[in-house]
Design brief:
- The structure is a homotetramer of 492-residue chains.
- Chain A is mainly α.
- Chain A has 3 domains: 68 residues, no CATH class; 224 residues, Fumarase C, Chain A, domain 2; 63 residues, Ribonucleotide Reductase Protein R1, domain 1, CATH 1.10.40.
- In chain A, strands 1-2 form a two-stranded antiparallel sheet.
- Chain A starts with 16 loop residues before the first helix and ends with a helix.
Chain lengths: 492, 492, 492, 492
């Protein structure tokens, strides 16, 4: 059994396993175990180059580290008698190599800077993966939209039939929101990908470290310069969680729409069985469970952010162990926001839409009444508020036709609409669903031609964003190749 | 490999493992797996008694259930291809007994009522455990207080020296708060320990179930009567999480005090090494990590509550899969609030307090100035506000003695304090720390005799609360014995 | 202009109005201004009885206080140059009576215990009002239910047609939840209605106060005994906010249901115009805005709780100014939860339900398939899982009739259902909506007779709860009469 | 009294004032009232240019709008019988000009796009102001640091003396964090400053609007293109709230440090009286209330974000009235984060630091032990873990001198440190506070020369950020001048 090497000097009293388990971050540290090996490699390469650890010791340690990288970390490292994976790995090195060699890795650093580096390395990967998922979902929305620019459907406000729109127009609303979610993620990435290494406990160290070198080896874009800031701040974590919570809120709204659309009441879409569950008791049920869980996950994402904010606020400087408790919320929030996005994309891509049902509903609930009010303004020169009132009164009377409108106009304003030139034909034409949609050619509106134009812009932006993501991924991959090559270069 | 029995009728398309994992509650279901076996037993006993499942089938199923209870659930049941542990157990029964027998357990129920029953069973155990922990912590506070009624220390407001008090008085403030935390937990227990069984999907069932019988078998105090309410509501979960978050906030404040008291700046207490960590880089460090993590956990508890509230709000009736996502927050919140309480109790019980350091600080910062102001009112008949101003001016001038006070009285109010009878001796006496504490004999105040009287009341209330907890535990234990005995009674 | 009397002793440097405004709680203190006058009266009566303030001074001060009570507080008291309303009132007393008299009110107390008393006095009123609103809503639900025990409607799970139920059964699910909300509020009331008065800054005082007397005068049920606990704890506030957030979540779910039911897609209910808005642009719109805002308020209630928890956690003892920032969240949370409940009650009471539309939808989506599966178990002796699968396959094939079922039974299990005695008539009968509902006679189920029985129980519990609320209100009213009478008794 | 013009068509039943107040956003709309006049102006200029409203009508309406801008909105517009300020202004126009003219302003728009535009206009101003405050605080930190590069002080981890650092190094940690807060705010600004105008209810309009023109007139950087996205999304609001909550968490940590530093226990700093309060009972108290409230505000900021997230998540498209309830949280969050920043800056700028007290504490608690461990590695060639253990054992024995170290080395590792060349002089030198600080020359470390170098970088970045803020402010100011000039140009 590996032995803890850190407590033995200063502290007596062995800890009971209740305390050990309470203190240990081991469970959450599985997220960063692989990153920790990379951080160890980079630190060691630097220690050697700066002459802090000698050639031979460095080679021996690196051999074990490369083994951990290639074969994975053995389970004994994750024993929760260790406070964390850092202690576990150091104990492993000392167990394998003896303290004379293994005891040298921790020169010039603390677990404070080490763990911050590990969290950032794993977090940047997760953020990048999430950016990819978001872009895939955007692609599905764009592709679907391209096929449905003429598919009319009811647009709702307040869950009431409001005005007709098209499926393409509706889906592109989500694509627009997701593009901003993407933008927030890439901004968060910039704040994540900074190196705290070399800050040690918070006051840096007397050893002649080269912080730029470890940062470069690990693919960081720059340093978190001030060493106290480097170990004590977790705003990067809060920013990622914020971006996740907002993205998750966007996704949950799309899920809500799809849940409604796939209900028997609406019948606008049929989801693939793959994304549905049935009931253990009701044999007929086909439930959109994937979407419901995805919707609920946005509550989880909000909770993760809340927890992390509550933990961080009011903490005095510099490092406090409270910071450890913030980290699992990062992983929880990333999972909550991220796990469902690919499923949402595929659920959409494989869904069957029912244009005839949508068309059937599109004109219900006097949904084109606004078009008629507009006509009264444009054709008859009425003030909009007057036109709005007259049409509203007709609806209240239960019928939109010339006589009802005429009556409303007379009673409320002493105006004869037919006298001003309104005919039943014009009323009918104004109330037509498809021509109302076709007339909405204002930038960003639902008219098919307008949506097609918008689609061209969306595709281009998406292409740009995907290229950007790929380039960041490539940068990190290259850095890793370089690091491993330098690490292996040390071996005989 | 066990086979899923629930999807095969209604749904086609196999799910990819991404979807399965996303939908499955298996990981969190480990919390309720044992409870589910008990629920199955009770349901089965009732189905048999009501003639819904025949003797022979019932006996065969019970034999497997007793095996699961006695030997624990095999790992194959927790495969996350199953949506949940309920599906896993049913599949296991069918695998062992064939569908002709194993397929009979689910008559007259749904996973909706089943899972609600399981959550409640586990949650009530956790709440009871937490009540026990809270009482243990109260006991430590009471015991410590009994030994420190005369240990003077500085009381702080705004982290500034305010007035002297005693360690006993300070600790009892926390005991008072914890007594209310206990009261909230037992109230939550009442709402948790109600049976939803028999509600089926939400509309109950056509089978002639006996809900009272299953409730009694499982130790529930009463039914959640309305069957839709029974499966759709999670306010019991939110109430437990609220009680946890508030308790955790109380505990975090005590932790903050202890962290400050154990700092070198204060030096009021030395914690046992067992509850401390050192630094991987700074050899001299002894850090109160247990208390810091405990403090941070209150952020996690708040986050769990937030998440569950965000998930539940706005959900239409009745069951939605979103509810599944609320449950893990219950376990997280219970752990966050509960895991540290026993450690906090023992950290306090094993700590070494330093009365001399506390005494040294007790009189600093003009902390007895209020006593002097009171004297000016009581002895000289000044209005309190006048006395307050005069003493305040002296403090501002940097010195509380007769000449400075005299000057302040004259300049501000044209009063001669010495003329009114104030002497330097009286000033000195009024500023004495110990006599100031001794004079605070108002109910709830820090005077040793007053605290001793308060202690008698606290001990009695604590005794009553402990008896209550023990009685609830005994009630549940008895119900379990009875259930298992009826279950085994069915076997040959 | 009134003058601040508190700073003048100890502190120099006048504050700029930016600082004053930032520090002042004046805006929120409007909630507690009236309570503060009552607290002053009680404190003064006690000071006089204990001989701390002489007869003449006491009478003069009381005269002003009675004036403030009868005429309301003049606006000059709310100047935000004062840190709080307590300072404003004291300045007003001194301005009216001179410091020799007005400067005597604050003997033996601090704003710390004063403000805690004021918050509790106002909060208990708000909690009581909320309890009354909840009971009114329960009454509306019970009354509506009594008229709709036979009104069938579709019950949804996962927003999919699940099983038929009745409107009464559905509404009573909410009544059940609201009864628990009521229970939480009355428990919170118990923790609110405790007196902190006499705790002074946190260490009580050397003046011979009678805490029991002020508590009784102000209608408090008991003391918060420990004086540090009395001024530093805000768990009562957190508990009220929790009860509010949970109640608000319940109410938001009812709002969601009504929003859906009043949509054109469902058409189950028409809300009174009074609770609806129209659109400024779409003349036909009638939107359930009241319900939408009520739904959203549950987010606000959750936010208020989160904020207060985040503020309180980790605070060292005893009083810190941070506590001031927690209080406005109490008022915000109470408003968020409470303002909409009476409107929800009236919106429900005045709504027009459409039984024919509900009936039309009740049988859609194969919603009675479970009844058929039950029949296969009860009549043919099939295991439930087998029956569930056979009916599921028929639904998947698109049709539930004997031939389809027969085919499913043969293909999947080699069983002939007709051979076992199933006929098309039995299938038809099993699928009938009304008889399925009538068969759900299990306790808590939707069968009309069962619901009628449940209604009797609900009415009785509601009656009991209303009586309890009324009795608490009466107790507070009596205490206030007594206090005012003692106060006026002091006047000439 | 102005009359509501919007409900009169479609809806009957007058609303009681309870409903009106519940529905109305008037109170919060004071934040956007001025912005609404600007939006009206821009919309009107565009309607006229597009020929939708004739010259004469446009001129008359503009005259009233210019009056509202110049003289402020009269109180009658804020009557909460109106649902919002938009309805109030339209009613005012109709009241002044008659419906024939005033009834024309709302052509081609809805309150949905109007309110989104107003919120964005006000929010961008608030965000800009906040950016300015953050930069001012950074400037204070930089300036203070420049004067304190050689002021040694104890650095804490876990609130325990950890290692010596300097005041400059400590303060710059906060400056670094605030620079990232600034970066988040400017990113949020980009997402805020987009125009939703022209989206109407969500489906744009049949009127030939020119969205680019109104966007330009109002100083927006670009459109939110998709019209449904434009009115339904509030991610910009959530992003601002996130940036505020994170900034507020940063600021609360600085406040916590200052509260501790100004306590009698530490005595590192004396705050100006202006930012402090005293006690109403304790005459000697000088409390850092401004900092405490600022610390608590971070809880409020977190609560505002939570509330808004909870409200937005799961909402189906497109506009729902729930959105109205999200807006006040934006203002609350902005105030919570922003109001205290200028005060924090000035409290810091006017504080008196006590270098001698800091120096006195800097070397306590064996805070330079790490330097000694480093020496054992660098001079004697020991592995770091061995050196760490030896020094730790000496601390545990209570003394760091050669004999104690020698004993520890022998007992634990069989090493003679003196044999390896360690002398008491070297031990002493390694433990010297100032030389330890001077040796921390790693990038970002506390050595005075290193901090001076860092300061140059910080000043430059701050200069760049200030220029950027100024340029954005200038852009908005210019747009406003242009808009008003075009508006006035319409008048005779």
């Amino acid at each position: 059994m590996l032995k803890d090497q850190i407590r033995r000097g200063r502290l007596g009293a062995e800890r009971g396993c209740g305390v050990s388990r309470f203190l240990s971050s081991m469970e959450a540290d599985r997220w960063i175990a692989e990153a920790d090996v990379l951080v160890d490699m980079a630190h060691l390469l630097m220690l050697r180059r700066q002459g802090i650890v000698g050639e031979e010791h460095a080679r021996a340690i690196m051999e074990v580290l490369v083994g951990l990288h290639d074969d994975g970390l053995p389970e004994e490292i994750f024993d929760d008698r260790f406070e964390d994976v850092h202690a576990g790995i150091e104990a492993y090195l000392i167990d394998r190599l003896g303290e004379e060699t293994g005891g040298r890795i921790h020169a010039g650093r603390s677990r404070n800077d080490e763990v911050a580096a590990c969290i950032r390395i794993r977090a940047r990967e997760e953020v990048l993966r999430l950016m990819g998922s978001v872009n895939r979902l955007r692609e599905v929305l764009v592709t679907l939209s391209a096929g449905h620019t003429a598919t009319v459907m009811p647009g709702f406000t307040h869950l009431q039939h409001a005005q007709p729109t098209t499926l393409a127009h509706h889906l592109l609303a989500y694509e627009g929101a997701l593009a901003r979610d993407y933008a927030r993620l890439i901004m968060a990435f910039a704040r994540v990908n900074e190196s705290p290494l070399g800050a040690a406990a918070f006051a840096s160290t007397g050893f002649p470290l080269d912080r730029d070198y470890t940062a470069e080896l690990l693919g960081f874009d720059r340093l978190v310069e001030n060493s106290m800031d480097a170990v004590s701040s977790r705003d990067f974590l809060l920013e990622v969680l914020s971006a996740c919570a907002i993205l998750s809120a966007t996704a949950s709204r799309l899920a809500s729409d799809l849940i409604l659309w796939s209900s028997s009441l609406a019948g606008f879409v049929t989801l693939s069985d793959e994304y549905c569950s049935t009931s253990s008791i009701m044999p007929q049920k086909k439930n959109p469970d994937t979407l419901e869980i995805l919707r609920a996950k946005s509550g989880t994402a909000a909770g993760s952010l809340t927890a992390a904010l509550a933990i961080m606020r009011g903490l005095p400087m510099s490092y406090n162990r409270d910071l450890q408790e913030a980290t699992p919320h990062l992983w929880q929030g990333l999972s909550a926001a991220g796990d469902g996005i690919p499923l949402l994309a595929e659920a959409l891509a494989t869904a069957t839409f029912h244009p005839e049902r949508m068309a059937e509903e599109a004109g219900k609930g006097f949904s084109t009444a606004t078009g008629l009010a507009d006509l009264l303004v444009q054709d008859l020169g009425l003030p909009f508020r007057t036109a709005h009132t007259i049409v509203g009164k007709a609806v209240r009377a239960g019928k939109i036709d010339l006589p009802t409108l005429e009556k409303a106009g007379k009673e409320s304003f002493g105006i004869s609409l037919s006298g001003l030139g309104l005919s039943q034909e014009k009323v009918q034409a104004a109330l037509d669903v498809r021509s109302m949609v076709d007339a909405r050619t204002v930038t960003g509106g639902p008219a098919p031609a307008t949506v097609k134009k918008a689609l061209r812009g969306r595709k281009e932006e998406l292409k740009r964003d995907r290229a950007e993501t790929v380039s960041l991924e490539a940068g990190l991959a290259e850095a890793r190749v370089r690091l491993l090559s330098e690490a292996r270069g040390l071996l005989p």
